[in-house]
Design brief:
With 286 residues, this protein is of the alpha+beta class. The chain has eleven helices and four strands, in the order αααααααααβαβαββ. It has a four-stranded mixed β-sheet. Strand 2, helix 11 and strand 3 form a beta-alpha-beta unit.
Length: 286
Amino acid sequence: MKFLKFAMAIALLPLLAACASGPDTAATKAMANKGTPFHMALQNEYVALAMAEADEWDFEDAHYFNNKALAAARGEDVQPQPLKERNIKGDAQWELEAARQALRGELLSGAKDYAPLEIARAQAMFDCWIQEQEEGDQQEHIDACKIAFDEALNKASGMRPPLKPAASAPMPAKPLPGPFVVYFDFDSFELSATGAAVAKEAAEAAKAAGAGKVIVTGHTDTKGNSDYNEGLSRARAAAVRNALIEGGLTRDQVERSGAGETFPDKATGDGVKEPLNRRVVITLSR
């Protein structure tokens, strides 16, 4: 919580007591959970965050986390918070976006089933991290959430069951289709409906052709700082990778990288917006 917010709360304590209060976290914690072990763990994690924010007089975030705990108790699909819902500035946005995409990839890989406690912890700590990063005035709190997120995600990843061996019967070789190209709006890593359809087509083609690897490479145009564009290209590649996993490919099967503004499809000068260069290329490989 920002110091100014805390100072104002102390100065206006009598008024705040009359007109503002934190959520009933005790009732939320005691609420019977209608979901899976993952939902139960998520309920407890978000209640803990709500209590911590209420103790710091940050009632807005306390209610936010408490509402996510309530949704988890009801067995609803509670997702990690999108970056666009927080005011994140500078390079931290790409670190957080990469972390969110890694978290979503693990969730899509089935971590809710094979590591429910660990992945629930990772999701809550991501939301803690992004909330503290937005406030930006308590570095030790930011670091604590980030470290807890990394530890939980790595533990969940380490619990992922090994892939089942492929059937021994040889498959006739098929020509690999592609490459497939997904295009993006300027300064965006969100898939359009068309982009999602291309990713789905690529996933189906990879399964039909028996592709062993699917290479996903993100690109940008030359508008903007080259370091910023490199981060943006990685975020685009991560978004497409997750779409391919949703389409039935495994997490280990899809490799991603970001090329930034290098290797443009259409050569331009520096600082030029070019739609053909704002893309992710999906290449199938044996």
